[in-house]
Amino acid sequence: MRFTVLTLFPESFRMMEEYSVLGRALRSGLIELETVDIRQFATDRHGTADDYQFGGGPGMVMKPEPVFAAVESALARVPVEERSATPVALTSPQGDNLDQNLVNEFASAPGMIVICGHYAGVDERIRQGLITHEISIGDYVLTGGELAAMVIIDAISRFVPDVIGSAENVEHDSITSGLLQHPLYTRPAAFRGMGVPEVLTSGNHADIERWRRRQSLERTLRLRPDLLDTAPLTNSDRVFLASLGWSGDGD
What we know:
Layout: E1 2-7, H1 14-18, H2 20-27, E2 32-37, E3 50-51, E4 61-62, H3 64-76, H4 80-83, E5 88-97, H5 100-107, E6 111-115, E7 121-122, H6 124-129, E8 133-136, H7 146-157, H8 167-171, E9 190-191, E10 194-195, H9 205-223, H10 235-243
């Protein structure tokens, strides 16, 4: 999968390119990341990419000309048959909250173009004439969209085959599975007076899976009961949740 990020600060992505799981995925060609400096598409010799607001007001606004030119240049490099399926996303606190459903949607695309918002915002004509998605990673404001773009890329890249060790690792993660993950333990078996549940050392895989599933259900009910509204629950799951006081009506 190919990510093209349009940004005023392309150097921000250097860490992502050099380190971590994504760094290895980039070096091995499992994913591609192109960072494009929006200022290269400015119409003046100073590389001006922002200007004052019409009507007055605090903060500068990203100009439409360089952003349009940068996106059009990026789309021109996408195979014709893939262009209509390539999202053009803007990072913005006004956007749809990034959740697993949206990540799944993007992960099925051949590639993605991400525009990093900055300053007071972008010229409204960028929203009107360019983007297919506006994405927020939470109800707060960052100094720029680069960190949000990295979050988006990281979340999607996990679903590219071989980026994470195995598909099973991804499928059983919190949220991805529809529930929060069960508790995890590793060696040593005893640590500062805290032990490992006996079932995990019993060797009985059926009991282990049952314990993990119930722990996942209990943790989700306690911490994120909203997830249960859409989680893939079995009849056995529902019976167990009911024993914990869950009514199944969103309470």
